[in-house]
From TrEMBL:
<dbReference type="InterPro" id="IPR050767">
    <property type="entry name" value="Sel1_AlgK"/>
</dbReference>
<dbReference type="Pfam" id="PF08238">
    <property type="entry name" value="Sel1"/>
</dbReference>
<dbReference type="InterPro" id="IPR006597">
    <property type="entry name" value="Sel1-like"/>
</dbReference>
<dbReference type="InterPro" id="IPR011990">
    <property type="entry name" value="TPR-like_helical_dom_sf"/>
</dbReference>
<protein>
    <recommendedName>
        <fullName>Sel1 repeat family protein</fullName>
    </recommendedName>
</protein>
Length: 564
């Protein structure tokens, strides 16, 4: 079957009317047609014209003309009706496959993206990023440049003036009976710039303090600690030796600082096993302040859960976390562990209580999870009102997932009346915070609201550009939708090869629904064209992977993450 398209006829037909003329030929060969695909047109050969003209006999003409009567005329382009009008100035041809493909594209309905509510259970992702988020939520151990933790005894300094300490130190020096306590405190006050030392430069104070410390025949833990602190910026290797001596002597601040240093801070090479060793010393040290001990327990719990410096051990992690400081991130992690039965018996009700505590303490992720619990009746009674309250609370405190969930909620009317306008508002908020799911949901709602054929070329071009941005970030549905727009030529030129490439990427990223459309596009290309399309697909896919790697590296750098 050939379909002949007559773009302009002169025999009683208006010039602005396009008539689809279908010529049925019972048997024909490639010799009966001369197709020029580049011009999408052909000329009838003598034999083909003869066969066509046979259909102009009275009986067939009458049958054909009957199809011009309403309502059949409206259906005519899709019917196999033998009709040819005399006086047509040019004739275009399409094969059955081409007609089928065009009809398929025109009638194809865009699949909706998956729009399910999202958990914000990042603590359960055993990644370096999650581990660092937990650790950074803990009260930090002081760095050596922070002098508050350098001073061993404020009560001593408050009761004895700088001049008294200085006098005692000088008398000891003259008598040759130098004690750790007096000399170390004097060195500390010199380093901090007390008395006449306030006029000295930082470098001069460091040199003077170190000279005083070197006079001590056998330094104690604190003097080693102070020597390590003062030496660190100039000679870090020597400073670590001093600090390790102080840690071995049971000096808790030295143990705390070394734990931080061995996590890669201040330029010290990261060594998770050494960091964990220092934390264990810290929690077992009777001299460790309560606050530092609680922090150390939380840190050890995180290391055991994420397998940092030791193997993954959920039971050990849960026991450490039970002794740790009550910070929202740790409470949320514990709540999720109880919910999933990790390291302890699963208990949805008890889990919701812990998650509620984390939410009330300010965890946006926990508030989002609590909202889902109220929506689904998990560990708590179903309450759409409370679900919405906690979704809003979570969104207002930074949860992107909660903003997206509110969009889904308003779209389907789960906890609130359905409203496209409200759904769009919340999707827009989540998209502004980087949510790909929210971005593609906005695009889909726009397409569904205005319909494809109502778009102006400018509007379609903007949507196509937005889809490309999302597709380039690795969103599989956006790749699929972009492929469809590209095949149709909406928002830009039609391009079968590029359309195929984006559809192929969508399939590769897990969106199997794009396979049928991709395969239909493949049948419209020659082998060389298909090879070029596949090559383009690979190039685009490689760029997406590279972009994702670079984006992750930027996130890691911003968070000061050293990869495991």
């Amino acid at each position: 079957m050939l379909i002949w398209h007559a773009p302009g006829c002169v025999s009683g037909v208006s010039s602005n009317v396009v008539i689809e003329v279908v010529l049925l030929v019972q048997s024909y060969s490639s010799e009966t047609r001369n197709i020029n695909k580049s011009a999408a047109s052909c000329q009838l050969t003598a034999s083909a014209w003869l066969k066509a003209s046979n259909w102009l006999k009275a009986s067939n003409w009458l049958k054909a003309s009957n199809w011009l009567k309403a309502p059949n005329w409206l259906k005519a382009p899709a019917l196999s009706v033998a009709l040819i009008l005399a006086g047509c100035s040019s004739i275009e041809t399409r094969t059955d496959a081409e007609v089928s493909y065009i009809s398929y594209l025109d009638s194809y309905q865009l699949n909706a993206p998956a729009m399910n509510m999202q958990r914000d259970a990042w603590p359960l992702e055993r990644t370096e990023e999650s581990y660092q988020r937990i650790v950074k939520s803990l009260t930090p151990f002081s760095l050596p440049v922070e002098t508050a933790d350098v001073e061993p005894s404020f009560s001593l300094l408050q009761s004895q003036s700088f001049q008294w300490v200085k006098t005692m130190a000088l008398e000891e020096t003259k008598a040759g009976k130098i004690t750790d306590s007096v000399q170390t405190h004097y060195a500390l006050l010199v380093w901090l710039g007390y008395g006449e030392n306030s006029t000295l430069t930082h470098e001069q104070r460091e040199a003077k303090a170190l000279k005083l410390l070197r006079r001590i025949p056998k330094r104690d833990a604190f003097s080693n600690y102070l020597a390590g602190v003062i030496t660190f910026n100039q000679k870090p290797a020597l400073a670590l030796a001093y600090l390790n001596r102080a840690a071995a002597g049971g000096y808790a601040p030295a143990q705390a600082l070394l734990a931080r240093f061995y996590q890669g801070e201040s330029g010290v090479p990261r060594d998770d096993k050494k960091a964990r060793s220092m934390l264990i010393r810290l929690v077992n040290n009777k001299q460790t302040p309560v606050g530092q001990k609680l922090t150390a327990y939380g840190w050890l719990g995180a290391m055991s859960f994420y397998g940092v410096g030791t193997g993954v051990n959920d039971k050990v992690a849960f026991n450490y976390l039970n002794k740790a400081q009550s910070v929202p991130a740790l409470q949320y992690l514990q709540g999720l562990m109880v919910s999933e039965g990790l390291g302890t018996k699963a208990d949805k009700k008890a889990a919701s209580k812990r998650i509620a505590q984390a939410a009330m303490a300010g965890s946006a992720s926990a508030a989002n999870q609590l909202a889902l619990d109220y929506l689904n009746g998990q560990g708590v009674a179903v309450s759409p009102r409370k679900a919405r309250t906690y979704f809003v609370k979570a969104s207002d405190t930074g949860s992107v997932a909660a903003a997206y969930n509110l969009g889904v909620d308003h779209l389907y009317g789960s906890a609130t009346p359905a409203s496209i306008a409200d759904a769009t508002f919340w999707f827009d908020r989540a998209a502004d915070q980087g949510s790909l799911k929210a971005q593609r949901s906005l695009i889909y709602l726009t397409l569904e609201d205005q319909r494809w054929y109502d778009f102006s070329s400018e509007e379609a071009a903007l949507l196509r550009a937005e889809l490309q941005k999302a597709a380039e970030r690795g969103d599989n549905w956006s790749s699929y939708a972009l492929g469809l727009l590209t095949l149709r030529g909406q928002g830009g030129a039609a391009d079968t090869q590029a359309g195929y490439a984006w559809l192929n990427i969508a399939v590769a990223l897990g969106y199997r629904q794009a396979a049928e459309l991709r395969d239909a596009a493949a049948l419209q290309m020659t082998r060389p064209e298909l090879e070029r399309a596949q090559s383009l697909s690979q190039t685009l896919f490689d760029q997406i992977e590279l972009s994702q790697e670079q984006e992750q590296e930027q996130v890691n750098q911003q968070q000061g993450v050293a990869q495991l």
